[in-house]
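Re: the 807-residue chain
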Amino acid sequence: MSNRIMVIEADLMDLERSDPATIDPGLLQTWLADNDQELSIYREITSGKGSGRQAGSGKKGHPSRTTAASSTATTGGSGQSGQISQAAVPGQETDSEDDSGSGGDDPLKPSAEQDTGSSVATCSKCNKPLNQQELKRIANEESASAFLCDNCPPGTESKKNEPLEEVKENIEYELTNEELEKVQSLMVVFEKENITVKYSFYRLLGFVERNSFNGFFDNAIAFFGHLTESIKNTDVLTDMLKNRKEHISDFVERSQDELAYLASLNVLTSFASMNNGKGVPKHEEVKAILSWPEWKDQNDNFNTQLFLAISSMNHSRGFPKHEEVKAVLSWPEWKDKNGEFNTKLFLVFSCMDHGKGLHKHKEKVKEVLGWPEWRDRDGKFNAELFLAVTSMNHGRGFLKHEEVTMLLGWPEWRDQDGEFNTELFLAVSSMNHGRGFPKHEEVTMLLGWPEWRDQDGEFNTELFLAVMSMNHGRGFPKHEEVAVLLGWPEWRDQDGEFNTKLFLAVTSVNHGRGFPKHEEVAVLLGWPEWRDQDGKFNTKLFLAVTSVNHGRGFPKHEEVAVLLGWPEWRDQDGKFNTELFLAVMSMNHGRGFPKHEEVTVLLGWPEWRDRDGKFNTKLFVAVSFMNHGKGFPKHEEVAVLLSWPEWRDQDGEFNTKLFLAVSSMNHGRGFPKHVEVRLMLDWPEWRDQDGRFNTELFLALSSMNHGKGFPKHEEVTVVLGWLEWRRDDKFNTALFLYYASRNHGRGLPKHQQEVKDTLSRLESKDQQYEHGFNEELFRAFSSMSTSRGLPQYEQVKAIFNWPKWKD
């Protein structure tokens, strides 16, 4: 429940800061209706009142379309149920069909006719008004099953939590046996498809007239029975219908084939967003929009991200006109240096203009993109920084230059070398997503907390990022909460050291959900499934499971036990194949637990088998790399990918190393295009003097570009042409490998002088180097610091001077 209360508080603050002339009355009316229960609780908590007189009246189970006069509420996905009584908001007639929302005073301020004590939340069991202490407890219980007073312990709530009882409660007429069977049939669909029934759906049923009941449920069964897997609750339908009788009647009159088609669309949420409160879109309208050529990329594939961006701007505004979309997408500002459409850049601006309609100010976009703050030392556009700044302005319109200049000029973002610490800035901006820019003093205080310092007094960026991840979009945490959280003994290993990996895994599950409760963490980590045969905690296994549940909260014990018990994870000797398990879970990162039958089919594809019929785990891992977080690939896609001749060496053998190198660069980016792979592997830079492909060199470069996609040819040519890699007038592969190993996943080096300075420092004047660069020593040192960046000269010098190295 705490999540919803916090969102309500943020929404109220946004409304209070807004110019009344810019607020759409209809949207405001809808917002008040959708959040009537949370508003009641929030008002009572903030006003300090635990009781009040009930006001308003209405028929059983037939609440107002705007604010419920007397309703039983089940909130969000947690199933919270309780009686909420609330007076009508000024300017809104509870039985009116007029959706204009005109008239009335500011609904956030009580008028003379509205008693501030007229809203009251009552216990789900005994109907006693909840006092201030009880309301605060409920507000902090995200997983609470009902609104219960202190005298009614959990488990004693009424049957109103049962779906059938909820339906009866919200419909004003008695249901026949035939109608009850239809209700049961729909509930079976919900259970089978794992769809969460939100309270708004039960409330919607109060507006379904008797003569439309059978048709509504028949069509709802057809709709939800074909719902795309990416949608897991009923909001997609209720948001479009918004309790409007004309929209409900239209839904009833649609053919089931049409509804099944709409429900199966991967971009249904986009259509629902644009048609929020406007009814279910027409089949012919949807097909016409999807046929527009603007959605196609260069390979004629549908650009889902682009479509999402347009729909975000047109949220609740209906469908845009073709000529408007065509015009805005043609602006040259969206093109990169190569003339290709920059979808990410367009997404950024669409986020700032969420719900404000399509962009109309071309010159404003051009002005913002021209600000020098977005450029790095080489004059290149820093997309990551731009995304971080605009993320805080999500839905708030265009940025102001002076505010951005001031924000980025704060000294807190600079490290000891005076370099801008992008990671640190991203962490802070993540917390303030959609909340505007933070205050300078807040940032200074936050970064000054001693909890972020390690034993050597160094700022632990990784720890800071993990804590901030949980508070994504929630604002800054409280110091005492962080201190308590980091002090829990569960984070300590046997030696008393803080287990950062374990902490990161738990925070990943709670991304954007706030801090977990101590007892929840203790229970989770105590499950025997995480222990190996020696009784040691298997951190890798735990990381894999939590990765799947990224941002979804803690998994259920029984789900984990069943998942880990599947025979597919066992090898021929009956041992648990952790590597295979990690690879499968990697593809489902953030998507929840996969289905057993899907995993069985996936692992049964013959492409994973070598000539001896053995399962090629390395090959499977390579494919899973590319599909990290994208779900399971299609069989035909894998078969085509693995058949490309580029993976074969001169003897016709499959070159697994080469395939792994290419897939590493495309980590989390999906499968590459054949033409791109062919062109890249043909670059002459990979060939040695004898014309042979230098696999070692290619592996080194691909390691630096891990997860960053394929490099550009001109970049590779420039970097490999630097004289710093040469010794005795020859390209020193070992030297390049050293540098690459230290910069795994960091991209190609940008500054030749940095490479020159670093490499020259490492060429010691010791006797070991009398005859030139000691390649063996260089390799040994580099292996210790793979993917950790370039070392500091003082550190290297100190290590080489240790007396233990002397004979």
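The longest helix spans residues 2-17.
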